[in-house]
Task: inverse folding
């Protein structure tokens, strides 16, 4: 049976952690790209996608006990004589969390989320399939002796790419575009192919392939499906697309001279067309967004090899953001309102009514005895299983059967606390 409370805790933890990283990314916009390059900014974006998808808090909570075993600490009470026995009312108390969410409300929330995620996913699949169908209907092969085919073979060898990459023409695209997660295909427009440096075009798309950018976009889309209600995820998706293209440009021109960079910029200008209608969340296009053109050209003309100090600072930023995201994920998972089902709620109401009535009457009192306060014959008759124990980090006495196996092996009956009911039973 699905634990609604755990499921709600999971989604809140993922959403808060991912949004925290996106908020940090927004702060980075105040820093010049010359200080933190596009490649590192893209890496932070990929980290945010990871926090939206991976249950970091749950993994850490599961791994923590493996490295730091739980220890039992027996805290003895002061010795008590028969006339100094501790007494507490025989009332079962239940700690009611301050933040409680009824199961009905939690189910409504999850139902709304599931409905939104379903329709969002259906729409994304429909858009992609429609675009892909158009590409398939308009594709035509690129001749093997063409300049484009020769450049594909050369660039694959230069970049060390072993996977099979198809190269075709399509009248449905106005600029080169890479499509396909498992069967990558570079679609070239029928027009303008004679006005561009085909080697640079092919190199750009192959670097997208080498950097697994299509997979990054697919995971980003998956995060959008899961967190469709979160505005930060849409900011992330846009930033991933932007930094994906800019980091690819940075990689393309890294070893180029200034003159070659200007030629690359001219190539982008020559293929610059309206990309409206292309689902950029599942493909990589050379032209990109015209609104970012000036910024894109400025960045590629001024790409410099990163200094050691800059690399250290970038790594420090990545580690800091990762720590912040992890801490936020754990905090969110621990502060999600507890889902209270109907049965538990009724039980609590019953216990509260019992408590109220008990406080108004002279109820039976339970005595709590240390082992040393027992009579000699009582010491002979009691056993570890009859006692209650103090355990580290737990603010109440724990019965023997609720201890872990290691804790049961550590405790002795001399460490236990015995109630008057137990003493009565053994007599």
Result:
């Amino acid at each position: 049976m699905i634990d609604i409370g755990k499921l709600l805790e999971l989604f809140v933890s993922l959403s808060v952690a991912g949004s925290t990283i996106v908020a940090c990314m927004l702060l980075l916009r105040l820093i010049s790209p010359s200080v933190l390059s596009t490649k590192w900014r893209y890496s932070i974006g990929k980290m945010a996608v990871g926090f939206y998808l991976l249950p970091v808090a749950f993994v850490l909570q599961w791994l923590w006990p493996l490295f730091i075993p739980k220890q039992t600490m027996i805290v003895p009470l002061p010795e008590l004589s028969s006339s100094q026995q501790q007494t507490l009312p025989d009332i079962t108390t239940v700690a009611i969390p301050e933040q409680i969410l009824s199961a009905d409300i939690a189910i409504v929330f999850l139902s709304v989320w599931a409905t939104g995620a379903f329709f969002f996913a259906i729409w994304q699949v429909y858009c992609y399939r429609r675009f892909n169908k158009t590409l398939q209907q308009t594709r035509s092969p690129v001749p093997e002796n063409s300049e484009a085919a020769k450049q594909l073979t050369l660039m694959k060898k230069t970049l060390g790419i072993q996977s099979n990459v198809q190269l075709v023409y399509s009248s449905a695209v106005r600029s080169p575009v890479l499509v396909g997660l498992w069967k990558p295909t570079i679609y070239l427009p029928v027009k303008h192919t004679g006005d561009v440096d085909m080697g640079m075009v092919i190199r750009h798309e192959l670097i997208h392939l080498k950097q697994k950018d299509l997979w990054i976009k697919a995971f980003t889309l998956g995060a959008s499906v899961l967190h469709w209600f979160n505005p930060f995820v849409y900011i992330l998706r846009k930033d991933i697309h932007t930094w994906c293209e800019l980091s690819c440009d940075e990689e393309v021109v890294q070893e180029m001279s200034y003159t070659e960079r200007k030629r690359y910029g001219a190539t982008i200008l020559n293929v610059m067309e309206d990309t409206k209608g292309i689902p950029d969340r599942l493909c990589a296009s050379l032209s990109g967004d015209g609104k970012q053109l000036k910024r894109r050209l400025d960045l590629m003309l001024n790409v410099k090899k990163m200094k050691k100090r800059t690399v250290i600072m970038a790594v420090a930023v990545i580690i800091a953001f990762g720590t912040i995201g992890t801490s936020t994920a754990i905090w969110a998972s621990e502060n999600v309102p507890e889902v209270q089902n109907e049965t538990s709620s009724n039980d609590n109401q019953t216990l509260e009514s019992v408590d109220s009535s008990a406080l108004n009457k002279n109820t039976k009192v339970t005595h709590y005895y240390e082992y040393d306060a027992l009579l000699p014959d009582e010491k002979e008759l009691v056993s570890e299983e009859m006692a209650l124990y103090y355990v580290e980090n737990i603010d109440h006495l724990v019965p023997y059967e609720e201890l872990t196996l290691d804790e049961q092996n550590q405790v002795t009956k001399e460490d236990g606390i015995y109630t008057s009911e137990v003493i009565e039973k053994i007599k």
Q: What stands out?
A: The first strand starts at residue 86 and ends at 89. The radius of gyration is 32 Å. The chain has a mean pLDDT of 79. DSSP finds 15 helices and twelve strands in the chain.
